[in-house]
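Key idea: predict the complex, not the pieces.
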Amino acid sequence: MTAPAHRPRLGIATVCLSGTLEDKLDAAAAAGFDGVEIFENDFVAAALTPEQVRARCADLGLAIDLYQPFRDFEAVPPDLHEANLRRAEHKFDVMERLGADTILVCSTVSPDSVDDDDLAAEQLHRLAERAADHGIRIAYEALAWGRHVSTYDHSWRIVRRADHPALGLCLDSFHILSRGTDTAAIRVIPAEKLFFLQLADAPRLHMDVLSWSRHHRLFPGQGAFDLTGFLDLVLATGYTGPLSLEVFNDVFRQADPRVAAVDALRSLLSLQESVAREGSDRARASVGGLPSTPPVEGFAFVEIGAGREAEPQVAAALDALGLARTGQHRSKPVALWQRGSARVLVNGGVEDPGATMVAAIAVESPDPAASARRAERLHAPILPREHRAGEADLAAVAAPDGTSVFFCRTEAAEGWTADFAPTGRPAAADVGPTAVDHVALTQQTDDFDGAALFYRTVFGLHPEVPAEVAAPFGLVRSLSMTDAAQRVRIALSVAAVRRGDWAPGVPHPQHVAFATDDVEQVARRLRERGLLLAIPDNYYDDLDARLALPSDRLASMREHSLMYDRDEHGAFLHCYTPVLGSRVFFEVVHRIGGYRGYGASNAPVRMAAHRRARLQRSRRAPAPDTH
Amino acid sequence: MTAPAHRPRLGIATVCLSGTLEDKLDAAAAAGFDGVEIFENDFVAAALTPEQVRARCADLGLAIDLYQPFRDFEAVPPDLHEANLRRAEHKFDVMERLGADTILVCSTVSPDSVDDDDLAAEQLHRLAERAADHGIRIAYEALAWGRHVSTYDHSWRIVRRADHPALGLCLDSFHILSRGTDTAAIRVIPAEKLFFLQLADAPRLHMDVLSWSRHHRLFPGQGAFDLTGFLDLVLATGYTGPLSLEVFNDVFRQADPRVAAVDALRSLLSLQESVAREGSDRARASVGGLPSTPPVEGFAFVEIGAGREAEPQVAAALDALGLARTGQHRSKPVALWQRGSARVLVNGGVEDPGATMVAAIAVESPDPAASARRAERLHAPILPREHRAGEADLAAVAAPDGTSVFFCRTEAAEGWTADFAPTGRPAAADVGPTAVDHVALTQQTDDFDGAALFYRTVFGLHPEVPAEVAAPFGLVRSLSMTDAAQRVRIALSVAAVRRGDWAPGVPHPQHVAFATDDVEQVARRLRERGLLLAIPDNYYDDLDARLALPSDRLASMREHSLMYDRDEHGAFLHCYTPVLGSRVFFEVVHRIGGYRGYGASNAPVRMAAHRRARLQRSRRAPAPDTH
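Result:
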């Protein structure tokens, strides 16, 4: 990868972030942005004078790269044109006081405007003259829903016709990619006429483009647009202005702006990395770099945190699953359970007696230090290292939901397993888990998109097909992520609205799924120990109706509470333990052939079964349920 | 209104409600439904056998009116047809055990199906033959996104062609009204071929109809469809089956099913009332009635609850606004403040010292007892009456958010004001509030649609245009409601995702807006007492840029922190107090001409100003903020 001639300036529109203008500026600066677009509504609601905003930005090391938006200017009758020029002069005054030299002018949506490119060009020329008097440039942008101008090539024809040095274009990836406009014509726009570049991704939604734009934009890489190809084309023109994010998103609008700003910056770093990997020579030369991603090579371990009362439940379940407690940490209350490459740490040091949680996940890396350096460059919070002399010094960062993430090389000479004293306990069962298949982490609404971004950029995972499940206590969205070799799978899920505040005893559980090649035998052992989640007959009757499976197979599935799914690659059998302690359960999965999914369609049946098991338990033990 | 020949049976699909099948059945029965549609996924996830479900429904007094859905049946190649018949036979067995005699068959979306009405009719005929052997009827429904059959008239042609007594139609208002299909042809369908009627409303959204249907349906009257006209047409055919709700809604899916079921029933009662008022003779004769709505005639009072520390703040603000403390309740710690018909009760008996809330609203009714009877018939919870001998016995119910709602006749001989002993305090200020203009009640996500339904049906208010505001701490949706004479206005709002969990000191405030005809003088008095919320200069600079108001008017607005809006009817000036205690503030509004709005576009500026005021106050008084 060629070293870039200059690091590109990274920017963010204040509208991307939640809070007052002051909150937004602080968050953008803290994340390390070089500049901001000041969204007019944020400025208008602020008590700071323009001079105070200017000084605050200077203190924070932020340039004001753009003032935006100025709406409904061009192609109007003469009296309205005069009124619009007056309106613009007021904004130019504000900009001079702010020290901002570029203003975004959106293509008009006014019913008072006419479809006349010559008139639009003429009036924009006059606006540019006025702007130039103040040392200000006009960046004209085609809104995807503009009344007469809705495509970037149309806006470029008008700018070319207007022919004024203070008039150029703003390209916004959303407005262009949402309409599916052919992007090839970007190549004919001279770099000096590209005044500004706004970047936003979005999921593919079938809805009106205005609502799509105003509510569902995402940071680059979080959606379905080809931002890499788009940025490549823009940079290939020679554009050297800021890469600036303009993302309207209902969740980000109300989330902690300090977290959202870090996600925003992370998305831009990752986008540049993609361009550096896949882009044209000219584009590659103009982007910043990141340390490369050492490939993740599987789960090293998963750590379950458990309180005093919950820990025996977790241990009993691991034992029933077929793992053996092979080690005890030399300085911490942590036991190592394993069978094959399925390794679970149980950390009994959690204060709340009934609590359980997935406290940490650890992935195998060929170069843990390099993995950690990359995570640090991507602004992942580095966790303080607590280890004694002689113990492994594991590199760890925090995922957005607070889960600790470790990078390890288990087979290294000084590997982490050496921290555990052998227990001399009997070996693991003959049949049982062979590895961790996936870890399922339930996210808060605010963390979901950020978590996907984290695992994509920090682990190098790619998202699989998102799923949506109508679960008993509300809609659940999920996104599974995996590496090319499918050795690390993370399943993220989120309650789309919230879930079950009315339903006592249903928090959002997390789980660890173990791979096995004999799920029936594992299920039998779980059942014998009273640790198999019972799946109701109605499920099997429906399976029979739908799939007409051989009756002996169906009988066996029914007997062992195995659930079933299939896809074009293969089949899937899986079973569950009840929830152990407050919020962790285990799954055992058997992938037959090349089945790629997670049995998502069975999730509602599993959730209802978990609810029943919890109610039954609370009836048996009428002690107050702390959840 | 003609008395109906029989009360129509009211039903609800289990998919409308949150929880397990057991939760849903309990909620439907508690609300008073006569029957349910069992949604297959709910049944499949349940541990109850069909016989147990049957017994449970019987215990609860619920008929199982429909089993649904059966998908992707018709117009397929022979081998698939055989498989589909086998699948259906399994479901017929389940239905016999359930005691359900009608199954919904949706028009196919399968890529294996062909566009052949004759084949569809032939295969449906065969299905009906099989069904008839079990005493089961097939209700065929055109999904709006059906592959070959997507309109009800098309489904009717196929049913007519299939010509089997056990085969009829299911009409679903969503599938018909979402596509804008002409409903006139409903009149040609014989009642005996209308096997089932599903009712759902929806907002007008510009998105793909499948997502619209699966996520955004509403109960009748909560959306934009003409359900009254639709039901009128169906009843005019002579249809006497259940009126059954099938509503897929992301919020209802996770809300308390007992609350949602009451909303559901309330919507059906209100819909029947509309048909009874506006429908054809035949339709009117077949719906149930409700006590009529006595028109609300204005606010009698608003009651603010306040803790020990907050109460003086509220009192100081009312004094500064120009109200006088004219009365003291004879047995409760409640003061009466008033000026003109603006009356506020301040109830100092709230336990939390810093808390404030809108505890109650009271509306004038010509017949309070009749208003209360109607509310009770609409399943509004009746509040226990606490009054001593000789004190007014006010009829009160609880709104969905817990606010108490009273019906009063202030001018009655035994009016509620007699409970207050005159204070002999000086009269109200010469200039000030003349009435309560509106009360703004912030709702929880789960309560928003239900609150609108409540005020529409219980008060007889109609919803005005919904608004959506990009507020500093997240998107806020609002809906104002008023009576025909605009004497009672309620403004409901909700944080669309959540709001500002990250932002300390920003709960969701409620407010009371007073009408005045001299807002400037009221604002001056508020400012003198330090109780005027300061609006920043940037707002006025922007107002100047946008509207070019006369400079003296602008200067006066700036001086008095008056915000401004206008519509096609008139103009609007308004100002605010800071938040008093935990969550209540006051607004003063001056409607000029016939302005109908609420200055919604100014809300973000007001919210940012409230945040600033709160931060300034907490800096001045560094005692720990309890919020």
